[in-house]
Write a structure and sequence with these properties.
alpha/beta; inorganic pyrophosphatase (n-terminal core); Diaminopimelate Epimerase, Chain A, domain 1; 2 domains; binds guanosine-5'-monophosphate; binds manganese (II) ion
Amino acid sequence: MKTIPKVIPDSIAAASHIVLATHVNPDGDALGSLLGLADILHGLGKKVFAYLEEPVSSMYDFLPNCTIAEHDLDALQEFVRLAGAENVVSIALDSGDAERLGVAKDILLSNSPFLVIDHHRGHRPFGDELWLENECSSTGEMIYELALYMRADVSVTAAFCLYVAIVTDTGSFRYDCTSPRTLRIAADLLEKGVHPAEVAGQVYDNYTLARLRLMELVLSTLTVHASGRIGIISVSAAMLEDSGAEPQDVEGFVNFPRSLRSVEVAAFIKETKVGSVSVSLRAKGKVDVAAIAAEFNGGGHRNAAGFRFTGKSLAEVQASVLFALQKAL
Ligand code: 5GP
Ligand code: MN
């Protein structure tokens, strides 16, 4: 059991209305913890506004309650106004720094109390109250601990969402962040009615043809450096266009260069639209990619981190990333 700062459950217990938010380009943990907590809070009789900048991507629209997510910032402000600001608590999930909140950042942070629940190493504190667990596999795992602490009911819907969060952030219980506690919580979630084969099918065997075509294009960009210790792939805006895939469809592709036997650090350079390039880094233990990402104003974990640029070309970013990785080895 984690030591949860008491102010987190106390603030939630005292509020009638709760605003939830997570990071932009939400992954399985971001969406699973957001939707899982929303369901748990509904069970506690709270009114919830679960904010997402964009609609849930086709990769995650199997999450049972994903339609509750709202995208309209005017509606968010109206929710707070009607509730009375003093009755509202806002919570950011899985967000390593304030910038990760996207376009809603200032509106979200103008509300108080603003609670932050996160597990990122290199987290840069924001908001009023922080609950940070670097040793936790996922924010989904923390939300389960919070539900236990609050003696809140975890419905099969919430259990499903939290299980998706844990499975995706641990790479199906493969990464170092998987602890005995992670597996015990996963077992609890199965006892609440989650079917692991169903989740695995939805997460891993649910590709669109466009996504598989994009994978083909992206794999053909693979280059290896430093005697095979560095592997890099990239995606360009043109590849997205040609394949008909969505930007979110690249999730997990960074695992291809990482899967190479000789690779110690893998990078995936993503030009989602021209002039906007983001980078995913993965390591297998020796290199601390969170430290490399921090050099570029990004963040993340020791084995998985990222950062982004505006106004640089794919080739320029690739050159500076390769230089930084070679230096780190
Ligand atoms: P991914 O490569 O899957 O997008 O991200 C890997 C990890 O790095 C995640 O934990 C993610 O939250 C973090 N991360 C990715 N991009 C950024 C960024 O621009 N800033 C920060 N602070 N963290 C990032
Ligand atoms: Mn996470």
